[in-house]
Amino acid sequence: xxxxxxxxxxxxxxHKPKHxxxxxxxxxxxxxxxxxxxxxYLNDIIGASLDTxxxxxxxxxxxxxxxxxxxxxLKFNDKLCVSDKSKADALNFQFHSVFTRENAPIxxxxxxxxxxxxxxxxxxDVAKQLSELNPSKACDPDEIPARxxxxxSSSISCWLCFIFxxxxxxxxxxxxxxxxxxxxxxxxxxxxxHYGIRGLSANWxxxxxxxxxxxxxxNGSHSRPQPVVSGVPQGTILAPVLFVLYINDISENIKSQTxxxxxxxxxYREINND
Length: 274
Description:
By secondary structure, the protein is mainly α. The chain folds into 2 domains: 1-60, no CATH class; 74-111 and 173-268, no CATH class. The protein is 50% helix and 9% strand. It has 11 helices and 8 strands. It has helices spanning 2-14, 17-46, 49-52, 54-64, 84-97, 123-131, 146-151, 153-170, 185-194, 199-209, 238-247; strands at residues 74-76, 79-81, 212-214, 217-218, 221-222, 226-228, 257-261, 264-268. The strands form 4 sheets. The protein has a two-stranded antiparallel sheet. A two-stranded antiparallel ribbon has the order 3-6. A two-stranded antiparallel ribbon has the order 4-5. Strand 1 (74-76) and strand 2 form a beta hairpin. Helix 8 packs across helix 10. The longest helix has 30 residues, at 17-46. The protein is elongated. It starts with a helix and ends in a 6-residue tail after the last strand. This is Reverse transcriptase domain-containing protein. Residues 178-270 form the Reverse transcriptase domain. InterPro entries: RT_dom. It comes from Paramuricea clavata. Pfam families: RVT_1.
């Protein structure tokens, strides 16, 4: 690139076709090398970092985005929402409107075929979970870095086990989780009972799902809280388990083959008749 700049200055000074040709030839070489270098950077550095250092990849994606206009004005209740606060309220009301309202009888799955799941919490399991934390993850609402929890896992596991046991025995827990899907709570609790999750476990899960609220933030401005009446709290280990238990019987009474993955389902059948 320095040679390219020198040839450009030389051509501007002399105005000779020979010097302009030398400059254009070098300019084309520089352009080709820059493209090759950028491609190598994406493939060898950014692409290879997806498993080892995903932050590098997503940092590149964020810096490459050209759209920085943010959320445009929103129309809500025949009014135009321009401020961040009014946009947050409009979005949160829309999210709240799609929750599942349960007003029909809860289906009865009949006789319980599963044994009662015993209650259990122990410090060894707590220590194991803490030791497997990813230190690069963001903090939970308690703002304690995962790196500290991981490093102190053996020392604090017994105390955390004691705290968790109190939450479990009393059927309560801090109301810090959020939810954004449509799993109906009463139907979910009915299915949990069917699968043998009763007693203290059922009471704790009821507290886990109940009395939740959600807030939308737009550029630091927060909406008014809206109650969460359906769904399982996202970003937790328990949430996908509850979701799978809820949809576990989705293939019953279906004669075709089914394939399930998370919330995606495929129904298919081989057809032999023209």
